[in-house]
Amino acid sequence: MSTLEEIKAAAEQVSAEDRYELLHWLAGSEDVRRRDLEELRRAIAIGVAQADQGERAPLDIKDMERGRPRPRSNHCVSMSMPSAST
User: Fold this and answer.
1) What is the C-alpha to C-alpha distance for residues 4 and 12, in angstroms, rounded to an integer?
2) Residue 82 placed within a domain
3) Exposed (0-12), middle (13-18) or buried (19+): which is 82, by Cβ within 10 Å?
């Protein structure tokens, strides 16, 4: 059994409150923050490269305001805002 499997098995044996505290502690760890930042930087670099190649998709502000995630695609979002007349 791997260490990760042991940790998962142990987490199943504790209360939901303790699992929540464990998750909160883990999410705040420097290793997790560093990994998340690296992943964000990679995603931004991909989006910039796609935009540079003209690969953009329309941005729906209304969906963003409603908290709906955009469907994932191979296209980045155009940063230009629609004109007031549209």
Assistant:
1) 12
2) no
3) exposed
Answer whether residue 86 is part of any domain: no
What's the confidence (pLDDT) of residue 75? Answer: 44
Euclidean distance between the first and the last CA atom of the chain, given in angstroms as a whole number: 60
Longest pairwise C-alpha distance within the chain: 63
Look at residues 84, 43, 45, 76 and name the one whose alpha carbon lies nearest to residue 59: 76
* Residue 35 confidence (pLDDT): 92
Residue 85 counted as domain residue: no
pTM: 0.48
**Residue 15: how many other CB atoms lie within 10 Å:** 8
- Angstrom CA distances, 9 to 1, 4, 15, 21, 22, stand at 10, 9, 13, 16, 14
Q: Is residue 50 part of a domain?
A: yes
The total number of structural domains in the chain stands at: 1
User: Which residue range is the domain that position 21 belongs to?
Assistant: 3-77
